[in-house]
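This follows on from our talk about sequence and fold. Can you supply me with one protein entry, sequence and fold together? Could you add the entry underneath, on a fresh line?
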Amino acid sequence: MLTIRKLTKSFGGRTLFEDAQMQVNYGECVALVGPNGAGKSTLFSIILNQDQPDKGKVERDEWTMIGYLAQEGEAIADETVLEVAVGKAGELEKLEAELRSLEEEGNVDGAAYLEAQAKYDALNDPQIEAKAKRMLHGLGYKETDFNRKAKEMSGGWIMRAHLARLLAMEPDLLMLDEPTNHLDLLSLLWFQDYLKSYSGAVLMISHDRQFLDELVEKVYEIENPRLIAYKGNYSDFEKQREANFQRHHTAYKNQQKEIKALQDFANKFRSVASKAAQAQSKLKQIEKMDLIEKPRRPKKPFAFRFPQPPRGGQKSVSIEGVHMAYGDHVVYTGIDLIVERGERTVLVGPNGAGKSTLLKILAGELEFQKGERKLGHNAKIGYFSQHRSAQLDPNNTVVEEVLKCAPPEYREDQVRGILGSFLFRKEDIYKKTAVLSGGEKSRLNLVKFLVDPPNLLLMDEPTTHLDILSVESLIIALERYEGTLVFISHDVHFIRKLATKVLHVTNGEVHSYPSDYDYFVEKSGALSDRAAIVA
């Protein structure tokens, strides 16, 4: 279906990949991994013919229709959610223009024409609206949302509408760049189940470890500047990569030992007449060797020490008889909840059940109509919202912003190490916070919490905008955290690693499960994670 042969690409004076080879077969699910800036999105651009390689080529079966989901959605005008999902937000017009242009050039037999025609036909299928509605439902939309103007909704919801269009078109090859970023847990689990039975091939970039483990059967890693293939899912890839490193490292050490012995012999006896020939022979042996390059150890999560928060009371926060409504929409009627010191609690539940609302009530960020909220003794609250970039001084650099709130014993090099683990590289730490993107501001706020942690930490989707190693660094930090944690996350690996209690929020009620996520799924009696959350 898709073959990459001897591909080389340099950018900004750096070689991203050289003589790269890749193959995606029909029905395969393949992941492309590597650190930020390694060239993953560039390789996608070359496959999509949006960029050209320096050398090599990309071969596609001429009948292959590709569907591509970018990290950021396209601009839209006044189209409704459903119109976006059926291609009436400019997609059909673009395809019509492309077909006319190719026809005028007389190029009606090439792969570009065949693919444009296939996409046009898919969006004109009589069943496209019914398909799009099914996809929108699965991705968390309510029927009442279908006729809303998409531009009135958040960027994440617009991305879901674009994803629904791609899924309704059923392309032969689905290319996904961070597809889970804008999904909540329920829609992610639906999407994951959908892809498990998808008839086409999938090539994805993702930082969601569990998602990769559930789906992929082959991993390609971009590694300075090679493209290395591994069989299996992400966990298999990690094991194989470590085993490869150990083999390579042993071979390198053995060769270096041999070179040293040969060189020592030559140095010792080159001036001894009777052994000068032997010494010269040893040097020639070194010259003829195929030298093994010193392997680079795979990067590990950054494990840093941070100050523990002051000890709070046994009850961190409680609410009693709370009523909450947005106008006529009633979310809660008289709920009670106690969060105990040291608990690590995850909130799960269907879309619109009120998880974020409950987190805001606990944080004191939202006024409710009736009831009472009580903070425990000596409680110090930190509320992390992925949509909030307040509390950043626009005149500070990134590193200044962290040093400002870090304990006095923190040195700049320590702060730089922590920032590096959360994707702030080299010159990034000297940017003013005013020019940071939304994702960068979110990550910076996260670092600020970690260097000066409160004893009650409330977090809404903390792993968004983080790569896999950064997620692991955050897990390590929160595992060592001695305060109380309440969080919402769509990252099942993150939930499984951290949650010691589950609160299932549904139909205006909150049900407590006093153990981990797997216990919750088992006790729900459901046949799957998704069924347990919806129940």
About this structure: DSSP finds 18 helices and 18 strands in the chain. The mean pLDDT is 90.
